[in-house]
Amino acid sequence: MSKQIVVQKAAQVEEIKKLLDTYSALGVANLQKVRAAQLQEMKKKLKDVANVRVLKNTLMKRAVAEYKNKPDLEKLEPMLNGSNIFLFTDLNPFKLSLLLEKGRVKTTAKAGDVAAMDVMVPAGNTGLPPGPVISQFGSVGLPTRIEAGGVWINKDTMVAKKGDVINARLAGVLSKLNIKPVEVGLILKAVYEEGLIITDEHLHINVDGFKKSLIEATSNAMNLSLNSGYPTSETISLLLQTAHRKAFSLALNAGIPTKETVGDMLRKAYAEASSLNTKLPKVEEKTAESSAQKG
To answer: Distances from the Cα of 52 to the Cαs of 29, 43, 49, 60, 231, in angstroms?
Structure first.
């Protein structure tokens, strides 16, 4: 190894140490199957939140071994294998994970890629002329017909389920139909922050599921507080409204006059008196008939 290469590597190691000094967290992401154009696009999206570097694992291992300003940084070493990209950032690790997840892009499949979702080919005109494509479609289970000089898919057909490995034949067909069943992006293997290594299984958060559980918990807590009459800042207003409504109903039905009930009591009395007044002539008529019969 020439002296110049040794000097260059030493300089790169020192640069990594400076980055470790500058940022509070270091993420290690899998770079496998991320193409160059996609990587450049991801770098642009992340430029405001992370310093993204493609570095050799050997240089990172050397920097980690030599750097002593952060505790337990050496625990990151088992992650320093394979094709990696490094993200130096001050962003919360979970926010970084969500940001990378949202930044994943759909792309055409190659042989050996894994379907990121159920792959459905819709019925309709493919826009392709008849020819060898008909047998290619048939080889992956797509029913076709020729209509108006073009190849049509007869019905919606699922050609792969989420997690299936896509073979070369299916990849070629999906490419012709411009269906993109593969998602590519940076997948975090781990993040180091303040002496803690957070691995990928702990970084993934089901945001929708978490929101749903929070809503359910809030609803259950509200119901418990209301049904047990336990006041909180969130329920006190509803509890007072319920108590007022029950007290009003009790006073009204018991004939207890208060400034809130007296108006309703008078209206109730008036309605009852009016009802009796309409019935009085009939009562008087029956009384007169009864007296006449006795006389």
So the answer is: 10, 6, 9, 14, 51
